[in-house]
Design a protein that fits this description.
The chain is α+β, with helices and mostly antiparallel strands. About 35% of the residues lie in helices and about 20% in strands. Helix 2 packs parallel to helix 4 and helix 6 crosses helix 7. The protein starts with 7 loop residues before the first helix and ends with a strand. The mean pLDDT is about 95.
Length: about 375
Amino acid sequence: TTLVSDVNSILDDDSIDIVVEVMGGTSLARTVVLEALKRGKSVVTANKALIAEHLDEIHTAVEQSGGNGVKFGYEAAVAGGIPIISTLQHCFAGDIINEIGGIINGTTNYMLGKMEDGADYDEVLKEAQDLGFAEADPTADVEGHDVRAKIAILAKLAFGTTVDVEEIPCNGISQISSVDFEYAKLLNCTIKLIGTAARLSQYGERDGDLSVYVAPKMIPTDHIMAAATGCGNAITVDSVNLGTSSYFGPGAGRFPTANSVVADICRVASENCPADPFPLRSTIAIDNDYTSAFYIRIPFIDGLGIVRKVGELAESHGVSVNSILQNAISDRMKADCVVTTEECKLSQVQALCAELEKEDFARAPPLCMPLVTN
């Protein structure tokens, strides 16, 4: 084994035919990956941010060098040790995917589990950092940016459409508090950070535009996603032929990630790596104004007429209220209530929340998240 500090000594070495990139980042890593492909070297990477931000550029580089047997493996980029990339590349060739989504960040899943047990956000974040699950700067995890990159990759594989990561609506977990888990319990739900890519319905079922987004969701405790605990990941695929198929396993950590990297190296070496890393192509339009039932928590200062005003504003934005929940008030200056809605568009709920925030009784911006009802 030879250790070097200059990447050009690898790129210039014609005896090296596979380059493994696990440095992270999107600047030097991009240069190394693209240059390696240009020089006829196969690439194996775990770099989801790089792939998501430069997907078409990488895809083009692979195609231009494909005649030289160049391959691009990236199993470790999404869901760690779960072989979801190769599954989507090979196992749905005769099927049509309607929706793919799941828990694809182990750090936030661990944190949400601890919060459900009673820990507050700041406490569990520090614990996650002490255990090495979260970085010193946890923004990529807790604000959903990591999930955003991963769901962009899964959307490309499932639907053939390249999605600009900056255009993906992205909400993390930093605004979730213990009170949300109190109301989740009343709703027989838990909270999970979910990346989703789904075909909308226009004239028929699932025949419309593609919606891709990241958001914490209220999901029923008997939902399959609720079974993913700790740092585990879970992905579900809804397709025409298979219905719902599910994939669970370790989504992070050195051994799961290394297992996927080595698997890709072996596939490249044995010529079992697909010639086209993104086999589907489509021109499905993107529409991220998705439809869902929603959970809205309204922080307020107690007073008369609040429920009436909430109902009036909801009606003015075309939002039908399903239920209103409120725990006993112990501090009139720091109260919360929850509104659950019937299915409506994200834009309607966002407009409602913006109006609620302007009211004199509002003590903080409302928190909204999709509420899974099936």
